[in-house]
């Protein structure tokens, strides 16, 4: 299976529409890949909080349309990263119309929407994304011909329970778009490898380059195999990271070293 991670540089001098056109062109250039992955909030920048409201779009808005066509033109499965989604009256949000979410879009090679995922763990503690955007409530997996994707976003990487849930739902390849800051890059690499090892799954983690609202980005998109071996890693600048991997290695790893079978669930807390 061939995957291309497009580590987009978000330049504040480039308009959202211009970047959208440029990224669509980059996706089309990946014809021949099986899967293409984009980063988190690449239209605005993950730390450009003041832009979320003005640049938010409905699920089937301009980014949806551009990425659906790019996926179809290239004939690839496309994880189109995430967008700041503004809900409509028929969006299925408990918060109602007008709420914001950090929403990922996955398209099939025919350009159909295969899945969407609203980020569950929002970053910022008491500011930024954590207060501006709603929290998703549903785990999302996407069956591909040769593997099943488990979808997560950026800060989700720090919460192993989410990934256990994805594995229990059949995930074999964990796809994580992100806008991860350079100052915590060591955590990015460490956690990507940890999620791969503990879940005996491939991890495809695609970050951004450039600077978002004054926050330098880590870049260093990474592909890790089920044993924790780094198959490929990008640098700090805009780059397309392409790697070939064998999805069957997940089943082989889980058979040869069946650690997941030894999980003990439902443990009781200590007695007081």
Any overview of this molecule?
The protein is α/β, with parallel strands linked by helices and 272 residues long. The protein has a single domain (2-258), classed as Nitrilase/N-carbamoyl-D-aminoacid amidohydrolase, CATH 3.60.110. It is 26% helix and 26% strand. It has helices spanning 16-28, 49-55, 62-74, 129-132, 160-168, 185-199, 248-256, and strands spanning 2-7, 9-10, 35-37, 77-86, 100-107, 113-118, 140-143, 148-151, 173-177, 202-206, 209-212, 215-216, 222-224, 230-233, 239-244. Strands 6-5-4-3-1-15 form a six-stranded mixed β-sheet. A six-stranded mixed β-sheet has the order 7-8-9-10-13-14, covered by helices on one side. Helix 5 links the parallel strand 8 and strand 9. Helix 1 (16-28) runs parallel beside helix 3. The mean pLDDT is 96.
**What composes the largest sheet?**
6 strands, mixed
What is the global morphology? globular
Name the beta content range: 25-35%
Query: Radius of gyration over alpha carbons?
Result: 18 Å
How does CATH name the architecture? 4-Layer Sandwich
Strand order of the largest sheet: 6-5-4-3-1-15
Q: How many helices?
A: 7
Rounded mean pLDDT is: 96
Number of strands: 15
Structural class per helix/strand content?
A: alpha/beta
Q: Write down the secondary-structure element order.
A: EEHEHHEEEHEEHEHEEEEEEH
Q: How much helical structure, as a percent, in the residues?
A: 25-40%
The number of distinct structural domains comes to 1
Which CATH class applies here? Alpha Beta
Query: What's the assembly state of these chains?
Result: single chain
CATH topology: Nitrilase/N-carbamoyl-D-aminoacid amidohydrolase
Protein name: Carbon-nitrogen family hydrolase
GO molecular function: hydrolase activity
Family: Belongs to the carbon-nitrogen hydrolase superfamily. NIT1/NIT2 family.
Organism: Streptomyces coacervatus
């Amino acid at each position: 299976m061939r995957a291309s991670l497009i580590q987009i540089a978000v330049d504040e001098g480039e308009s959202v529409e211009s970047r959208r056109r440029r990224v669509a062109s980059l996706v089309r250039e990946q014809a021949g890949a099986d899967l293409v992955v984009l980063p988190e909030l690449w239209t605005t920048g993950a730390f450009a909080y003041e832009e979320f409201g003005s640049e938010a779009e409905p699920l089937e808005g301009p980014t949806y349309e551009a990425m659906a066509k790019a996926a179809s033109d290239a004939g690839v499965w496309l994880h189109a990263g995430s967008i700041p989604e503004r809900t409509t009256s028929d969006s299925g949000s408990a918060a109602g119309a007008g709420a914001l979410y950090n929403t990922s879009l996955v398209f099939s090679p025919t350009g159909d929407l295969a899945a969407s995922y609203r980020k569950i763990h929002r970053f910022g503690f008491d500011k930024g994304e954590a207060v501006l955007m709603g929290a998703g409530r549903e785990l999302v997996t996407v069956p591909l011909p040769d593997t099943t994707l488990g979808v997560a976003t950026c800060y989700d990487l720090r919460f192993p329970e989410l990934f256990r849930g994805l594995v229990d739902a059949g995930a074999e390849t964990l796809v994580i778009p992100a806008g991860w800051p350079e100052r915590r890059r060591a955590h990015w690499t460490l956690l990507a490898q940890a999620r791969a090892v503990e879940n005996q799954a491939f991890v495809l983690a695609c970050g951004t380059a450039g600077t978002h609202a004054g926050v330098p980005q880590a870049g260093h998109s990474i592909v890790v195999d089920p044993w924790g071996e780094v198959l490929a890693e990008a640098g700090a600048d805009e780059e397309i990271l392409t790697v070939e991997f064998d999805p069957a290695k997940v089943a082989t790893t889980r058979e040869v070293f069946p650690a997941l079978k030894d999980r003990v669930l439902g443990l009781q807390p200590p007695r007081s």
